[in-house]
User: Which sequence fits this backbone?
């Protein structure tokens, strides 16, 4: 979604980058603006001036001395133009060109008035052709949405197309987002209706679902995680709820019961409890409610109880033995 910085609309990623890169004004003066930019954008070739066709190869960026001075003196201007340069650095200038038009050299120019110009030299029918154009970056529906990488452009075009109805929109979301396809979302019909015609709301919805997909992907293998629910109300406000369920064995208690068993009959009772524990853990493992280590604990305790039972007498327990077993069963 476009973000306005100064007189420019830039992408959210560009704004976040530039905001994070704001440095102390005096430090910027000492190092030089161009040197600082070269460090932040190593894939770009910076120069001073506004003359087109002044560079060779790709990724050329020429900046007006006037703009450089503004960046040096005004932190807000520095952030604005660094955000603009971020979008330039992530622009696929080859996108949309016919295969027979081979781009040999290309660059951007940030002019005295802060305007953005693009130039290119391409090879066609054995000759070189020069093109240049101004980019209206002050229009939020223009430059970065049209010139960024082919993948982003294709996505933006799809998102901008109005869907025929909410069912058409929902089908699109099922194809694109796992949380929708898996039935983990509940979206207000009123908000969906708004998203049909309001591009900003639709972009917000898609960003929310994309974030939910990422959250689900990061948690789906977490022990105990059973699922999540994404609820979007009529204003587009989001609530995410997750469900957790775990099962485990009380290892200390079972060890005390094994130790308290004084007869084979007592141990058989303990083994019956352990068998029930094992069944619950194996079921829980299938449902992601516990891990394999928890199942292994129950199996080892069963093995220990069986070995111990072979050394116990086959008789009725005494009153004191029965009392000790009862206490360890209840604790």
Assistant:
């Amino acid at each position: 979604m476009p973000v306005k910085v100064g007189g420019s609309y830039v992408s959210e990623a560009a704004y976040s980058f530039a905001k994070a890169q704001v440095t102390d004004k005096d430090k910027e003066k000492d190092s030089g603006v161009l040197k600082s930019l070269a460090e932040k954008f190593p894939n770009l070739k910076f120069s001073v001036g506004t003359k087109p066709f002044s560079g060779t190869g790709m990724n050329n960026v020429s900046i007006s001395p006037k703009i450089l001075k503004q960046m040096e003196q005004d932190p807000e201007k520095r952030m604005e133009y660094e955000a603009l340069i971020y979008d330039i650095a992530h622009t696929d200038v080859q996108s949309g060109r016919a295969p027979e038009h081979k781009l040999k050299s290309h660059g951007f120019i940030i002019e005295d008035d802060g305007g953005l110009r693009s130039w290119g030299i391409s090879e066609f029918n054995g000759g070189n052709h020069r093109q240049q154009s101004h980019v209206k970056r002050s229009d939020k529906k223009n430059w970065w949405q049209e010139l960024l990488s082919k993948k982003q452009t294709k996505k933006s075009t799809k998102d901008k197309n109005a869907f025929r109805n909410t069912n058409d929109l929902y089908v699109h979301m099922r194809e694109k987002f796992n949380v929708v396809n898996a039935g983990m979302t509940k979206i207000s019909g009123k908000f969906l209706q708004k998203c049909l015609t309001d591009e900003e709301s639709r972009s917000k919805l898609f960003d929310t679902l994309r974030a939910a997909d990422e959250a689900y992907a990061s948690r789906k293998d977490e022990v105990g995680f059973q699922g999540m629910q994404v609820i979007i109300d009529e204003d587009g406000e989001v609530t995410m709820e997750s469900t957790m369920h775990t099962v485990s064995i009380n290892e200390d208690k079972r060890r005390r019961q094994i130790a308290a068993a004084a007869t084979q009959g007592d141990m058989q009772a303990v083994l019956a409890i352990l068998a029930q524990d094992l069944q619950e853990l194996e079921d829980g493992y299938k449902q992601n409610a516990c891990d394999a280590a928890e199942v292994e604990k129950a199996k080892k305790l069963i093995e220990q109880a069986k070995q111990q039972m072979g050394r116990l007498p086959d008789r009725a327990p005494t009153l004191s033995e029965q009392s000790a077993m009862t206490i360890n069963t209840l604790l």
In short: Residues 251-330 form one domain. The two ends are 59 Å apart (CA to CA). The CA atoms of residues 103 and 177 lie 36 Å apart.
